[in-house]
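MODEL INPUT / OUTPUT PAIR
PAIR INDEX: 1
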Amino acid sequence: MFELAGTSAVAEMHEDVVPKTCEAVWNMLPVEGMAIHANWSSREIMLHLHGEKLLRLPPEGPARRGTTAPGDIVYFWRSPQMSRGKQLAYSAEFQRELSELAIFYGDPAGGGLAADDPARSGRDLNLQVSTLFATLIDIPKPFAQKCEDVRHKGLQRLVVTRLER
């Protein structure tokens, strides 16, 4: 379950497709932190994993091309400097190892709060280090609105917990 600013959404893991990733994420839960919003890739909030929660998993499952769909939840890992190169203009924060959960909550082509909100093409997941491991069962409108608020109003606490069947 994903809880954000008094709202929640439930996801179903793809244990039949990516069992190792699902097991690692399940065993890591609960986790919480400040959700940040992707500025250029999609309608996506991200939760960076730190310390004992940082996961270093190999890619798993079928190769994916193109963009993600609303409701997709992706595990992503990059080694230090993998995506950013060694450009001196980037701070140490962008050059560190990164492990995150990315929750795609809406159509990447718009629908934002700002009238001049530009269209997005969506995140290209043709990266060898990302795995689609779960999908939101439903995207409640209040949850999607709180995700959008992260983009326009700033960081919000996101809590990810197990929801036993």
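PAIR INDEX: 2
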Amino acid sequence: MDSFEDLIGKNIHEVTLNESKTFFIAPLEYSTKLCGKRYPSVKYKLADLDYFSMISFSQLFKKEALLIIWYDDKGIISDLEIYHFANDLDVLFEDYSIIKKAIGDGEAHNLTEGDTKYLGASRLNDKVPQPNSEILANKRELVLKKKYLQKIINEISY
């Protein structure tokens, strides 16, 4: 990866981002309201959700932080931020538990992102079997919700 300072001003599509053992590397697009306030345009995918072999919470959050590479709608990188999960692990674990319980109860088809605060089970189009139910459920991926990313933006002083 290029040095961090060299990323500012580059187009996100022109840089190579290598995986890190310490943090998730999250290239995230943001938009700006007329008042100048930023908001995230997308969710951040952490992992695919396998109903029959769900990833453990400790494995899901084995990295302690999120390196956010913010870029605008033109693809230009404007900011870098490292955000540590430490203060949010209780809420993230609670969200994980809600998702895991719904799957265990055969209710994966009823999961919505509104059921949780920061960690979501984002729905995909394909339908697949789920445990403890005859009803097919949409495939899902575990994501950091836009609401959580907005919280991160709000905590960053620009």
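PAIR 2 NOTE: The radius of gyration is 17 Å.
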